[in-house]
Write a structure and sequence with these properties.
2 helices, about 100 residues
Length: about 100
Amino acid sequence: MKEQEVLLDVKQLSIAFQQKKQRVPIVHDISFSIQKGETLGIVGESGCGKSITSMSLMGLNHQTETTGDIQFEGQNLLSLSEKQWREIRGNDISMISKSQ
């Protein structure tokens, strides 16, 4: 059986907001991988961190502290400049959200 190529590899992702002088954790230590050709759906109750996680994967969380490792096609997304993000966002990586 042929080994599939890892497209997105998220390890120990944590996201927090800074509220006044207090750090408020939103997402704590999540990890998952997506192989090339797979689709991932993120489900959960309201307020559990689905949207903020997706926004972090897209480099759109400018108001948060994001730690961990997000590798997309072998490139660390957390180290990208805004210019680099503009080159890949929408072309190489994107998200589809369902409105209610």
